[in-house]
Fold Hydantoinase/oxoprolinase family protein.
Amino acid sequence: MTSRTDDIRLGADIGGTFTDIALDVRGTMFSTKVLTNYSAPEQAILDGIAIVIRDAGISPAEIGIIIHGTTLATNALIERRGAKTALVTTEGFRDVIEMRTENRFEQYDLNLQLPTPLIPREDRFTVKGRIGAEGQELQPLDEAALEEIAERIAAGGFGSVAIGFIHAYANLDHERRARRILARKLSIPISISAEVSPQMREFERFNTVCANAYVRPQMADYLARLQTRLKDMGADCPVFMIHSGGGLISVETASEFPVRLVESGPAGGAIFAADIARRFGLEKVVSYDMGGTTAKICLIEDYAPRTARTFEVARTYRFSKGSGMPISIPVIEMIEIGAGGGSIAWVDAMGRIQTGPESAGSEPGPACYGRGGRRPAITDADLVLGKLDPDNFAGGAIRLDTSASEQAILLDVGERLSLNAMSTAFGICEVVDENMANAARVHAVENGKNISDNLMIAFGGAAPLHAARLCEKLGIDQCIVPRGAGVGSAIGFLKAPFGYEALASKLTRLSRFKPGEVNTLLAELKNSAEGFVRTGASGKIVCEITAFMRYAGQGWEIPVPLADEPFGDDAVAKLKELFEENYQRFFGRAIEGLDGLEIEIVTWSVKATDVRPAVTRHELTTGKKTSEPTTTREVFDPVSGAPRSYGIVERDTLCTGDRVAGPAVIVERETSTVVTTSFDAVVQSDGAILLIRKGSQA
């Protein structure tokens, strides 16, 4: 019997339309895309594994490790398909998740629409008992009332329970006791906020524990089913999950804290882009990940994606912070919009073309898939414009129907605007590209950056089709389309470190800073974070310490990186100096001249990761040898506004240094790269394609 080896690794990414599989066999990559199976998501993984192990000539038993990311938790939150969940909270705070905060993202909109709370009011239960902001018990927990609540939950047909008490981040004793009391009468999962998100600000913390409880039964059932079916097919190897912060955790941890998986797929894409940036020594990069359902933009500086402690899902207003459901967990920071290949095109009441956020997904899919879809998607527009080969989509696994795309585009959009199919398809793609350009500009401005200063890295099945046009709109002169771009997130999973970030909120002013207490707290956080990492890593672990600090009275904090060493007697002076340096970097200058203005620490973070091997460095080449296409295809050209003959080049026929002059389309199994008239394409030493704007100084 063949035994598994650790140098054979498999990444599996379940997206809204496609499930991507990447298999690394001792440095050789095999990959495939299969349509996502909504009723049994694990089936698509099994189908994909069967394809890549056949191509690689290995058995399932030889796979050493499987790393998995999924949008299932995200979709369950957005589509409200989670378990019936009860919230047990402190008396007087029943409506926190509905009242939200005082922030209004649209100041003058009298018809403001906010996401409906995950848990309706009748399913929220309150109990007496109070912990103070310093962690002291102000009022004993009413255990008799909890016994009665347990009986009501047991009789109510609930599938999960969330417990969120005021100031539980400072002292979790009441939440733990409440869980023990409820568990004596309930056989359903119980999540407590002090373990899911031990951070201050009750709205975000309560909402996060509610989200965790809401998706926990579904995710636990799915992960258990996946492990069983993998073993049945002979893949009896460890399975790890990639979490929203970009590290790997065990399946057991993921089953208990599934809210950490909400942005797992996009996190893999950001790691993939960061690895490319490190390979070429690129310090300023914007990653552009466009799949079948969404498009994601992420800034990467010094070879690392930007991170945050909170993010939002299900925004009711596309680019407006505050209009979504806040999730308070460590996450790779990016902006995400409903603009994927399956996003539906439509006409609004003012006669404007719009796209998304609704997606055709894999069932029924765009009209061209021939699976029952009747509404036009972005993939239909790309097909009509000639960007896609109907006979060679997804390696020929899916035959595309051009006439079905034309009919859908005309029926839903073109006839309403008195446009022919080609003009309508161009309008749809222009709207999509402009929406993504706006999203990229907003994301850069929010982070104090100029988007045009970055090199773009484009991946995902649809991104290479749109990347050159997006660069034209953003003023970006260079774009890399890596090898394996179509399954970039799945490859990113294989690059991810075993990592976990432990957080604790403890409001401390520097005037009251006690080094001994803080050293004890950080030691506990390090033990917790390293414990999660040790479940999958046996080598060296490094820790990154961050203090989130602010001037007293401010509403939000800035991250201040610290050395991984105990605090001594000079801690206050060092912390003050580091805070002012970082404050000046964020806002231009520190606040001076106000007597008595205190500095305070709100939250501590310890991020533990295992040390990854160094990557092989490559130099970007602009190429000398021009490769002449042997075939051509009519593709709509946005510059001339009419179809034009584009050269068609198979990516596998190109060698390092080969230069393809635009306009052209470079085709491969999982995607196609459109080289517009403004760009040329050069093959790099690692197989990546570098798009270079003609006439630039690249």
